[in-house]
């Protein structure tokens, strides 16, 4: 007889990672194309020589540097094994079994998975036709069982960001007993007239946290380190849910080195932003209804043609991220990579 395991495992979807193929251009996981800066690579090498020792369990130095960098107290920050781990810790910290976690859909595919892992109930609210979050509908979906709302801005995989005016109106409608998590994994790529600063919102309200990561703009996806900023009454419970020592010493050292590199890494996002306009404009010219994007990717709402488009790109040695029946997300790479993708996309259109 097999051992008893949870009876609800079939209801927990598997996380599908972006694919890669040898020799192909990988535009499937919203990574940066360039490797770590030399100073960051050196910090990783130094940390490797002390890998026989356990890491600092609270990532104290990193948390202090982040607090300085963000202008908040160290007690308002906690580090995690990627911000996805902090999403999971947050659900575990605020939800009892059967409590509801609301998010727009389509959005970050980890939300329904981590809600179920924590025995909570995922509630997904359809996005607007332009791929933006429908915050009115999200607010209306709050019930007595709601404990947590994820607001992914910019939204992965569709691209639009929430405006600050819209966010403030939304937050004003949410009861303070409900936690709102602003998932700002792509914060550094936002260039809007009315941008959200999740850290400022989190410091101004008792029920708001901001989640950010070193995986995207800072280029450390392989090392796994992110952080959560918010009121102490939420930071302490979230920190309590951490898997001990899950932020490795290499990750802590590399993240500190990224912060010490000053504006060098953030300046790289300007190139991505310029390329994202170029790629989006080219796709619009081809007739694709690509939503506005404030992140390092574009969304092609291909519906029933998504899988064919994805396979066509793969045949042209470009790996994209397909959500079958819905759309294809394509990361903005360097100009050569983007040209290879656009050439493939052009042939798909003419081949239809
Ligand atoms: C990539 C991503 C994350 C987190 O990534 P980590 O590598 O775990 O830090 C979180 N939220 C969204 C929406 C993302 O796209």
From TrEMBL:
Enzyme class: transferase
GO molecular function: aromatic-amino-acid transaminase activity; histidinol-phosphate transaminase activity; pyridoxal phosphate binding
Positions bearing N6-(pyridoxal phosphate)lysine: 216
Cofactor(s) required for function per UniProt: pyridoxal 5'-phosphate
UniProt keyword list: Aminotransferase, Pyridoxal phosphate, Transferase
Catalysed reactions, as listed in the record: an aromatic L-alpha-amino acid + 2-oxoglutarate = an aromatic oxo-acid + L-glutamate
Annotated ranges, domain Aminotransferase class I/classII large: 25-343
Domain of life: Bacteria
UniProt-listed PROSITE patterns: AA_TRANSFER_CLASS_2 (PS00599)
Quaternary structure and interacting proteins, as annotated: Homodimer.
Name of this chain's protein: Aromatic amino acid aminotransferase
Species per Swiss-Prot/TrEMBL record: Dietzia lutea
